Amino acid sequence: MDSDPPFHETYKTLFAENESWTTKVSPNIDRHTTVEEGELPLVDLSRLALDDEAEKESCKEEIARAAKEWGFFQVINHGISRDILDKMREEQVKVFKQPFYNKCREDKFMNFSAGSYRWGTPTATSLRQLSWSEAFHIPMTDISSFGSLNTTFSSSSVEQFATNVASLAQKLTEILAEKSGHNSTFFQENSLLSTCYLRLNRYPPCPVPLFGLMPHTDSDFLTVLHQDQIGGLQLVKDGKWIAVKPNPEALFINIGDIFQAWSNDCYKSVQHCVVTNPTKERFSAAYFLCPSNETVIESCIKPSVYRRFSFKEYRQQVQEDVQNYGYKVGLPRFLA
C-alpha cells in the first residue's frame, strides 16, 4: 500500500479548478513574489559554558538581538549530539514510510493519541490554501510510548531527542526573559508536558509549486526545529521573503506569538512557511514549548500592547478564525 496521503484524489476538485495542473505550472498559485536566499544569525552556545563572564553575556546578547531583529536564529554547539539527531531522523523516516492506512490508525499502530496524524488542509477551498505535507503531533506525554505497539520503531531515540530539545528551549527562554527584564522562571512554571509537543513533518515531492506548509506564525512560546538539507524553509524579514539556507550543524529557533505578546513586542513572532520540492521529500522535527491552557499572558512592561488573555482563549480564537476565514488572524485580535 502506498505510504503517501491521497492528495490527488482528496483534492481533485481543487486541482480540476486549476487548469495549469496538467502542464505542471501554477501561475494561479502566488507562493511569493520575490524570494532572496539568506542565512539566519548564528549563535555558538558553547560560549555559555565558559568561565569568562563577559563572553557569556555577549552570547546572551546575541541571542536576544537575533530574537528582536529576526524572530528566527540558528544555534550550534547546542548540546545535542549528532548521533541523537541522526537516530531521531531514522525513526522518523520509518514512521512516514509505513502504509498510509497504518498512519491513519496511529492510536492502534503506534500508540499515539487519536488525531495525532494529520495531512493536507481539510479546510482548503483553493490550492493556495493546501499544505502538501503530513505530520504527527505528539504530546510530550506520549513520547515514551512511541512505537510500544510495534517493534519496528525505537522509542529511546525519539525520547532522547525530545528531552534534549525541551531542555534547550527552556534554557533559551530563560535567557530571553532575563534580557528583556522579565521573570526568567515564568516558562518553566507555566509549561506542562501535556501542552508541549513534538511535530514530525514530511513533505512529499510535489510536481507543482504548492506550499508544504502555509505561511503562518507559531502560537507557542518558542520552537526548536531540526531539518534536513533539502531546504524549503522561508520567512519574512523587513517585508521580504527569505529562503533559509540549511545548516547541517545547527538547530533553528523561532519566537512564537505568545512570547511576542508576553515580551510586549520586544521579540518577534514572524511569518514563515515551507515550500515543496518537485523531486525530493523533506523531513523536519519541531518541538513546541507551549503554556498550559490556564496560563494568563500579560506583559510586565507598561503600557501593554496587548490585553490580558489566556492561552486557551488564544487557541480558541485561532481555531474559530481558521474555520471562518481559512487563515489565522493571531495577535491583532488581542490588541489592548
TrEMBL record:
This is gibberellin 2beta-dioxygenase. Its EC number is 1.14.11.13. It is an enzyme of class 1 (oxidoreductase). Gene3D superfamilies: B-lactam Antibiotic, Isopenicillin N Synthase, Chain. Transmembrane segments: none annotated. Pfam families: 2OG-FeII_Oxy, DIOX_N. One of its GO terms (biological process) is gibberellin metabolic process. InterPro entries: DIOX_N (IPR026992), IPNS-like_FE2OG_OXY (IPR044861), IPNS-like_sf (IPR027443), Iron_ascorbate_oxido_reductase (IPR050231), Oxoglu/Fe-dep_dioxygenase_dom (IPR005123). It comes from Hibiscus trionum. It catalyses: gibberellin A1 + 2-oxoglutarate + O2 = gibberellin A8 + succinate + CO2. Residues 194-291 form the Fe2OG dioxygenase domain. It comes from the Eukaryota. One of its GO terms (molecular function) is gibberellin 2-beta-dioxygenase activity. Keywords: Dioxygenase, Iron, Metal-binding, Oxidoreductase. PANTHER family: 2-OXOGLUTARATE (2OG) AND FE(II)-DEPENDENT OXYGENASE SUPERFAMILY PROTEIN-RELATED (PTHR47990).
